């Protein structure tokens, strides 16, 4: 496959009329006037090529709950709305929720996501059919001890897949005992897989823990030897200065989910401070039931402007936000990604003939602050998932998801 | 013109397969199975029809500065970047900046905007060519006394136009003397036009004023008899409880611009409190140089989630936000708008075959929290400005705007 005539971001400017050759799921050459070696040529004139975006935290099957319950306090929302639905979930619900979510992520230029939820084999199968990459963890908590027992076999089933990478998903420190977390750590070490956990999301969670244990949730994770590059710690809103130092020094991956955090009134994570201390920060959407979108573009802008409002207008400059959404995520998840030879052919073409990309001043600024659409083509592992805004089978997936939602809510 | 088979929002649900007949710039009938009386039939199957959105505060020509300067402190941004450009502005810059901004607003379903800037005759002409409605004020401040002298003739030139409504634009209380504001008030009364002003935007502005005058900016406006339904007060971030009461009781229009306020680190306006007291709140984007988008959908979501984070998750429910963006704006600007017989034919068709509108749970929630594109058709005053995402002349406008930006910055 040859992508012809694309614009690339290089050193803050645009490098025009570049060709990208793809073979066996990888970028094999980037240059000018390359010759096509097979039939598939994608005209990318007036298109910007970017490497795919990573959604570093979501619960994708919950896309099936989008709009089902909003504007509620956290506990009634969970107890009256979300948990009763989740108690009735079947594989078929997961299938169509995941596929509906994949449609939206493809449209937003996301080629890889990191998930924690139920029925992860079905999530993996549906994701592979859609063609995306994913890091998947079955959620683990003590109320359902079988979830921990199922974790290792899940890893064994999926560890050699080309698109799916199995991980471990202890839900949180208040739903998993110390013993569970230690077992998770041992499985993670044995299989060299990341651990994905919600950490320090609400003030109440942190206050309660500190009162009981005389240490913060982050200090607790440190005491269990769980901090480090293989920990994906999501939210991290209520941090002490010492917590910030621990997360940064240990190179723990911190996933910032600003839209969901605001919508649930959880607070604004101290991202400026974390970056200042050298932490690896990535961006995630959280589930569509608490966002209700799956767009890393929206998270980039929301992250930047909310941090500015707290720390001042020079905080989180556009190019830095772009790097957080791309390079930081690739590094954190060990993804061989970027627009360079040898990298995965996971890339996105954005139509620059949209008014929000003009005038041509600063493409990082346009991508972070102005982008309002124009994702034209999405390629993952060398496979074209969307071309000219068309995703094969989209209408059927939407219909099936709608049917499945009605089935779930009348069950 | 007949729009066939659209879905309409009615009492929180969707009313499907409805036809909308348009004649002489107005909606003349809404019903089922209407017969076309002329040739133009617009198929709206699987489309949601909404009345057009109003951008209640912008500086549209500044779209030409998009991405030119971001991530700076307010004063260096103005002094080093914005003011030097503005000092060199010519009519031709305004023309292409406005047209570029109109393209984006059409794509975002905005059919009417409220503006304050320079060269407003050119702004009016460019807007009319693009086909949008606008409330336009030449900015007034004491450093350029001729701007006040030009205000009344501008009103007289445009007061009978079908799309343009002239208004008065005193910039702010710290750039206009009391005498200027009193003259503005007298011209406004004489011609029955609204007054559009920036008010209580930064903490420094309010603190400085209170120190000097022993009253708040809102109290000062009250003392000058300027509060009321004909005042469009933009930002209103730093308000005392008494200010909130004054704005609400006087029925002053408060324009909330949450994205720009966050990006410039100005703060979060107490919208929940204003609404609680009965104030008329609308939404605006501010200029593309401080946002950098022109989307009321983005303002809706940002307004809702930032208020929730301050006041709790039940604040600004989706339907309420939708009403603020639509009904409040129509009332504040005296616009005969809405999907009802007799109203202006200013409406938008949104393609519901996008994943973010599914499952079909709560359309208000989807419009406020999930909407990520799909504006298909925009009609203003009975004229089709965009159909199937195509705006005639768009590519030329973008090219001309780019050329004009290069010309401006090399002048």
Total individual domains of chain A: 2
Largest interface: A-B, 70 and 70 residues
Taking the sheet with the most strands of chain A, its summary is: 8 strands, mixed
Portion in strands of chain A:
15-25%
CA-atom Rg of chain A in angstroms: 21 Å
CATH top-level class of the largest domain in chain A: Alpha Beta
Q: Given the helix and strand composition of chain A, which structural class is it?
A: alpha/beta
Number of helices of chain A: 14
CATH fold call of the largest domain in chain A = TIM Barrel
- Number of extended strands of chain A: 17
CATH superfamily of the largest domain in chain A: Metal-dependent hydrolases
CATH architectural name of the largest domain in chain A: Alpha-Beta Barrel
Q: Spans of chain A with pLDDT under 50 lasting ≥5 residues?
A: none
For the termini of chain A, the CA-CA separation is 46 Å
Shape of chain A: globular
* Oligomerization: homodimer
Mean pLDDT of chain A: 97
- Helix coverage percent of chain A: 25-40%
Task: Give a structural overview.
The structure is a homodimer of 411-residue chains. With 411 residues, chain A is α/β, with parallel strands linked by helices. Chain A folds into two domains: 2-51 and 344-391, Urease, subunit C, domain 1; 53-332, TIM Barrel (Alpha-Beta Barrel), CATH 3.20.20. Chain A has 14 helices and 17 strands. The radius of gyration of chain A is 21 Å and the shape is globular.
């Amino acid at each position: 496959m040859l992508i012809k005539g694309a614009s690339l971001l290089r050193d803050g400017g645009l490098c025009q009329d570049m060709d990208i050759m793809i073979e066996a799921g990888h970028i094999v050459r980037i240059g000018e006037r390359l010759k096509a070696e097979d039939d598939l040529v994608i005209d990318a004139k007036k298109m910007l090529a970017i490497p795919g975006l990573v959604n570093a935290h979501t619960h994708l099957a919950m896309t099936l709950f989008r709009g089902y319950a909003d504007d509620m306090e956290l506990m009634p929302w969970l107890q009256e709305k979300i948990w009763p639905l989740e108690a009735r979930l079947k594989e078929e619900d997961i299938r169509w929720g995941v596929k509906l979510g994949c449609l939206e992520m493809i449209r937003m230029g996301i080629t890889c996501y990191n998930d924690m939820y139920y029925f992860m084999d079905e999530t993996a199968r549906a994701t592979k059919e859609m063609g995306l990459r994913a890091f998947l963890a079955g959620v683990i908590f003590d109320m359902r001890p079988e979830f921990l027992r199922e974790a290792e076999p899940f890893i064994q089933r999926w560890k050699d897949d080309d698109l799916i990478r199995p991980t471990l998903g202890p839900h949180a420190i208040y739903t998993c005992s110390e013993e569970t977390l230690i077992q998770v750590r041992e499985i993670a070490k044995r299989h060299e897989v990341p651990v994905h956990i919600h950490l320090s999301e609400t003030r109440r969670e942190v206050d309660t823990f500190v009162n009981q244990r005389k240490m913060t949730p982050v200090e607790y994770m440190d005491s269990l030897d769980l901090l480090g590059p293989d920990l994906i710690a999501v939210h991290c809103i209520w941090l002490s200065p010492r917590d910030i130092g621990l997360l940064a020094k240990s190179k723990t991956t911190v996933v910032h989910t600003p839209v969901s955090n605001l919508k649930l009134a959880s607070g604004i994570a101290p991202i400026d401070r974390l970056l200042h201390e050298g932490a690896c920060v990535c961006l995630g959407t959280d589930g569509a039931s608490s966002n209700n979108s799956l767009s890393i573009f929206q998270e980039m802008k929301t992250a930047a402007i909310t941090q500015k409002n707290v720390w001042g207008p020079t905080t989180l400059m556009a190019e830095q936000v772009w790097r957080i959404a791309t390079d930081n995520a690739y590094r954190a998840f060990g993804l061989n990604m970027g627009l360079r030879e040898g990298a995965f052919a996971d890339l996105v073409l954005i139509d620059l003939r949209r008014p929000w990309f003009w005038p041509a001043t600063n493409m990082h600024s346009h991508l972070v602050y102005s982008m309002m659409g124009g994702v034209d083509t999405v390629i993952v592992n060398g496979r074209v998932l969307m071309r000219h805004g068309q995703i094969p089978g989209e209408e059927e997936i939407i219909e099936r998801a709608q049917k499945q939602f009605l089935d779930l809510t009348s069950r």
